[in-house]
Amino acid sequence: MKQITQTLLCILLGVFVSVTALCSTVSDQQWQDITDRLRALEHCQDTNSCPQDPSSPRNSFYLLGEEINQELDRVAQWQRDFGSNAESRALLHHFLKYQNEFVQEKVLTILREMPADDDTVAELLALLPDVRDKRVLIPLLIQLQRYPKMQSQVDKAFAQVLERGSFEAGKVLAQHIQPFLGAENLAFYQQLHSQLPPQSAKARALAKAIAREKSKQARREG
Asked: Helix axis angle, 86-96 relative to 101-111, nearest 10°?
């Protein structure tokens, strides 16, 4: 009986090891295929293999973005199946900087499924001052809400956008800044507001956010 039990355990262990090895092989093969395809798309101009719309070069640019996004969807599914790791995070951080707002939006969507981490918030803060499109800016702000301990760095990055960013970025940021305001940084934003063009859209939106926060604090104190 003891011999039979040992034999069964050995068989089960062998099956487990075989399944684990098979999963690892499938994971590695899928990842290699995804990264090879993304590398080819990113460097398609070198091989004259970029997707083309003969009627519009601009459409060709977005066709390329669509194909990259299809592969990024595969990255997201791969992470759901096998878990994220340093390599998959690094790949997403790389494409977060890709100069196509639809690709950047896709990366931000995928990052929402992943745990918050220090490397990601550093990439988000580095990207923020250069963002011009609200398609990217709004989901980026949603991501930054996951990092309350980085408030000081976030405030500094917001100041850069409000003072020196594009008209659209400054306005959109001011319109969505409310979740980031609190007693600890209200004075900072009041000072920042005093330095903005008083009749600008971003100044008006920031003033409204400051007023709402002051009202909220007054109710809390009362």
From this structure: 150
C-alpha distances (whole Å) from 133 to each of 78, 199, 215 are 29, 22, 31
pLDDT in tens, 124-168: 999 999 998 999 999 999 999 999 999 999 999 999 999 999 999
Residues 71-96 have pLDDT tens digits of 999 999 999 999 999 999 999 999 99
Joined tokens for residue 29: 């093969």
CB-based contact 14:26 (threshold 8 Å): no
**Residue 52, both tokens:** 């083309």
Please, how many CA atoms are within 13 Å of residue 135, restricted to the half-sphere of its CB?
A: 9
- DSSP 8-state symbol, 114: S
Contact indicator for 159, 192 with CB cutoff of 8 Å = yes
Query: Rounded to an integer, what distance in angstroms lies between the CA atom of residue 33 and that of residue 26?
Result: 11
Buried-state track 6-39, b at ≥16 Cβ within 10 A, e below 16: eeeeeeeeeeeeeeeeeeeeeeeebbeebeeebe
Which tops the pLDDT comparison, 60 or 179? 179
